[in-house]
Specification:
Chain B: Pfam families: 4HBT (PF03061). The complex is a heterodimer of chains A (165) and B (147). Chain A is an alpha+beta fold. Chain A is built from 3 helices and 8 strands; from the N terminus they run H-H-E-E-E-E-H-E-E-E-E. Classes of the chains: A alpha+beta (165), B alpha+beta (147). Chains A and B meet through helix 2, strand 3, helix 3 and strand 5 of A and helix 2, strand 3, helix 3 and strand 5 of B.
Chain lengths: 165, 147
């Protein structure tokens, strides 16, 4: 039997692939979104910043920022699932990965359900792939702030998958 | 839409209102026109907003933000004179990527209101309007009337 890889090698490979996916997108940086990883599970983290406010009277996050955060989490989770198998099988070199080579899924439609106003603090989101097909995928995303059980927004979208060689 | 001075004044007031919203300012949004239950707001392309670095196309989330803002402005400009509004639900269909370096313009219409809810439709265009909209949206907004 093959010896399992050292844990640091595995972590280094996965984290390098994840940052190649996320760091190359200017808009993800503009909003201040990061991703935390446990195995293959991703959590999007939207770091609070004053420029994300849409209603200064409350104050509340702009509804568009909430929609964008959920959509970004859906696209990154979908792309991550798409490259996971190649990454783990050694068919993809995380160090040499770039967004130029990697085609991202395209949003066909996205629906956001606003459940509570977005508070002026960090927000979190996690996506679930309802269906992940060769051409089309359907993704559901949940967003929360202080309490995991009290969502402030949720979204569902359909995505066109990039052609695969 | 006429060029009556009070309408210019209303568009100017709406522009000042939008400019006071930090995220709208961050995206350099500009109110182009405001009518009875209608609004038109535009914003420039920017490097920071790119969602696909291979093509330079801005992220769908940016279009959502512009549509949401324009929808809210259309609700507030409706004759019911709502004091405040919040988005309950917004669905966006993306027809095509917006051409890089083009200004994006969204037009929203508040086509029906009930006591507590406003229904909105919106479309977003880049500078090739003849190619049709880059995205369309449908939404339900809350309508907070004065006591």
């Amino acid at each position: 039997m093959r010896r399992p890889e050292p844990v640091q090698v595995v972590k280094q490979r996965r984290d390098a692939a994840l940052s190649a996916l996320v760091d190359g997108v200017p808009y993800i940086r503009f909003l201040g979104i990061g991703f935390e990883r446990r195995g293959d599970e991703l959590t999007g983290v939207l770091r609070y910043d004053d420029k994300l406010i849409g209603n200064p009277a409350l104050p509340a996050l702009h509804g568009g920022v909430t929609a964008a955060f959920l959509e970004v989490t859906a696209i990154v989770t979908l792309s991550w699932a798409m490259l996971w198998d190649d990454l783990e099988a050694g068919r993809l070199d995380a160090e040499e990965m770039s967004l130029d080579a990697l085609r991202l899924p395209k949003t066909i439609d996205f629906t956001v359900d606003y459940l509570r106003s977005g508070l002026p603090r960090d927000a979190y989101a996690r996506a679930r792939l309802n269906r992940s097909g060769r051409r089309y995928s359907s993704v559901h995303v949940e967003g929360w702030q202080d309490n995991r059980g009290k969502l402030f927004a949720q979204g569902t979208g359909h995505f066109l998958m990039p052609p695969r060689e | 839409m006429t060029d009556a001075p009070e309408e210019d004044g209303r568009t100017r007031a709406a522009h000042q209102f939008i400019a006071a919203l930090p995220h709208c300012r961050a995206l350099s949004m500009r109110v182009e026109r405001l009518g009875e239950g209608e609004a038109e707001i535009s914003m420039p392309w920017a490097e920071d907003l790119v969602g696909d670095p291979r093509t330079g196309v801005i992220h769908g989330g940016v279009i959502s933000t512009l549509m949401d803002t324009t929808g809210g402005a259309a609700v507030l400009s409706h004759e019911t004179g709502a004091l405040a509004t919040a988005t309950m639900d917004l669905r966006i269909d993306y027809m095509r990527g917006a051409t890089p370096h083009h200004r994006i313009t969204a037009r929203a219409t508040c086509f029906h209101v009930t006591r507590a809810v406003a229904f909105v439709r919106a479309e977003a265009f880049d500078e090739d309007a003849e190619r049709g909209p880059v995205a369309v949206a449908n939404g339900a907004f809350t309508l907070e009337r004065g006591a």
